[in-house]
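Recall the central idea of this unit: under ordinary conditions, the amino acid sequence of a chain determines the structure it adopts. In this exercise we apply that idea directly, starting from the sequence alone.
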Amino acid sequence: MSVAQQAPVVLAIDGGNVKTDLALVDADGHVLSLVRGGSSSPHVLGPDRCVALLGDLLRDAVAGSQAGDTGVTLQPVADVARVLLAGADLPEEMAALQQAIAALGWAPRLVVENDTLALLRTGTDRGWGVAVVCGGGINAIGIAPDGRELRYPSLGAITGDWGGGFDVGVAALGAAHRSADRRGPRSTLERAVPRYFGFETPLDVARAIHFKQLAVERLAELSPVVYAEAPGDEAAGGIIQRVADEVCGLAIEQRVRSRSPSATVIVSQDGPIVGATLLGLDALGAGAAAIARARAGLQRAIADAGSPLAQASGSRV
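Accordingly, the structure predicted from this sequence is:
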């Protein structure tokens, strides 16, 4: 595939455990296309299926682009591509994905990296800071003003991770069971969790998972349920408090505000696809007007494509 265009084009991808966003944006910040698909995590799909899914989304993006206004044809090659993926955690994983995607010729200037960089760029224009992603999984990155980086392996429970959507869902189902059999405090999750999946009791949910009638991965969908119940429920509130503690821990502080009074904590209102796009525009040397135009245009496009699960799972920088 190749792109014939009048102005340089950025291909930006934010690939997560739950959803994947792909955007085509020109150098002036005009959004040509934004498409959304399911999980593209190579940990979930494997590298080959991950790359295949991204290729399918790119075809959809080109087919839906504003070709009449921009000169984009159905044979896209962007000038710059930023492919930022959950599951691209270790150097060898990023190198293998870089090689596989580079072979497809999507862009001569390609960077494949972890999705934490997308969130960090979404939340700040200064190029440094600490970003914590809470989606299907949880991860963080810290970049100092002098460019030094601190990262975590983020390979799940085997590297001590806790706090992503799946972890929250497992904790919610466990709390629902402990409420039902009185091993734990009474909790509204006892009814709210099975109700979400169309069952009567927590045991019904567990049996459905045990007999593979319900995919265990769907427990990640319970995050919005837990957040909704948390204000008036001890068990749900405790789960959310634990998530907050994990976020603070990943941000290198036990309590960000107490340990670092000068720190600015931002809950990002924009999807990480914004940051992936801005990194591409940075590489093109785009000015402030183009950056602002891209951010605003993507905000509108994200709202149009919004997923309740994606919005509720939360991203923090």
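Residues 9-123+268-313 form a domain with the Nucleotidyltransferase; domain 5 fold (CATH 3.30.420.40).
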